[in-house]
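This part of the workshop introduces the protein records we will be handling. A record pairs a protein's sequence with a compact description of its fold. As an example, a complete record with its sequence and its C-alpha cells follows.

_____
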Amino acid sequence: MDRIAIIGSGFCGTALAIQLLRQARKPLSLTLINRSGQFARGLAYGTRSASHILNVPAERMSLFPDRDGDFLDFARQRLPTASGGDFLPRSLYGDYLQERLRQAIAGKAAQVGFASLQRQVLDIREDAAGQQLRLDDGERLGADRTVIATGNFAPTTPAGLGALDADPRYIRDPWREGALEAIPATARVLLLGTGLTMYDMALALQDRGHQGPLLALSRRALLPHAHRHNSRHPDLPPLPETLLRPRHLGELLAAIRAFVRDAAGQGHDWRDAMAALRPITPALWHNLDDDERRRFLQHLQPYWDVHRHRAAPPVAERIQGLIRSGQLQIQAGRAVGARREDAGLTVGIRPRGGSDVQHSTFDYLINCTGPCSDLRRVGEPLLATLLDRGQIQQDANRLGLLTDDFRLLDDQGRAHSRLFLLSPMLRASHWESTAVPELRQHAERLAKVLLED
C-alpha cells in the first residue's frame, strides 16, 4: 500500500488531501499532519472576525477547477441571497474546506485509508523502506512520499527593531490568537506596513471599539486598490503573443503597459487586464533570470502587489472611512530604530525622500509587513534541517523552494522522487502561487502526479 504524508492542513494540504481521496482507486494510506490541530482552516481561514472577508469573489473560490460554483452553492445553504460577485466571510470559507474534507473522507474508496495527526514534523530521512518522518513527540512515521504543504509564515522583525522583540507591546505575529486583545481602546498604534494585513488589523481594531490614533507606515505608502462590485464575471481582453517574448524587465514592463493601454482602448478596465495576465504569469516569471527577478522585487513588486492583490470593496470603503475621519494616517517612510520606554515604544521614522529621523512614541506596534519568505529566518525546524543537510534548495531571491514539477530540488539541483512541495513557497518557480484559483490547480495536478507514480 502506497503511503503519502502531507505536512500542513491549511488550504494547500486540505485541497491536496481532498483530491487524493476523490481520485485514488488503488490502495493508499494518507496521513494529514498539522501541529495546531486546526485542520482545513489554516492561517487565512481560521479567523472568526466578520470584517475579515475573502479578497476574491465567491464564484472564483471553488476548491475544484472543474466545478466553479461549488463554494457558492455551499455558501447559499447559509446565505441564500449570496451572489457570484460577493466577497464572503473567510470563516465561511474555512467551514467549506472542513465540510468538503469530511465528505471526501466519507466518500473515499474502501482501499483508501485516512488519518490525521496533531504533530510537528522535525525531520525527514530516507531509508531502504522509504521515508521516516521524525515527530515532535519522539515518534516516527513511515511514508513512501511526503508533501510539504505548509502555508505562509509569520512576519519577521525588520532590521533596526530587534530591541522590541521581547516587549509584549510589539506584536510580531498579528495572526496569533488573541494578539490584539491587550490593546486598550485609546492606544496609539503603529501599523508597520500598508498592505492587506494592515487593512485586516485596522478593521479588527475598529471592531473592538478602538478610538486611538493609528499610523500605517511603509516605504512608499501604497494602498491596495479595490475590486469592483461585479454582478457578473467580466470579459477579459485577449493576450497578445508579444507578452511572452521579453527576457528583460524593462521590455516586459513596457509590454504589459501597452497591453493594459490597448485593453482600455477596447473598453476593458485595468483589472480585466490584470486578470487576463494570471494564466501566463508563471511563464513571464520563467522568462526572467535571477538578476531580473531581483530588480522586479526591489523596484516593482510593491506596485504589482497593490494592483494584483486587491481589497474587497466593503473593506476598502471602511479603510477610506478611517482615513477620512483622521483616525488612520498613512505615511511613507522607514522605521530605522526603536527603544522600549515606560511611556511606550519610541520609533525612529525616516520619511521617504528625507534624511532626518523623527521620533514618535506609540503604545503598541503591530507588524503588518506580510509573510516572511526567507526560510532561514522563519524558525521552522523541519525546513532548517533539510536546508542544512542539502535536501532542499532555496532560490536566489529567497522567495521559496526550488522545484521541478512539484518535486523538490536538492542543493545539487537534483529532483527528489519522494519529496514534493505544494505551498506559497512555489513562488520561487511560479510566482503566481498564493491564491485559491492557482493553488487549486496545483493541488489537482500534484494529486495526479502522486497517484500515477
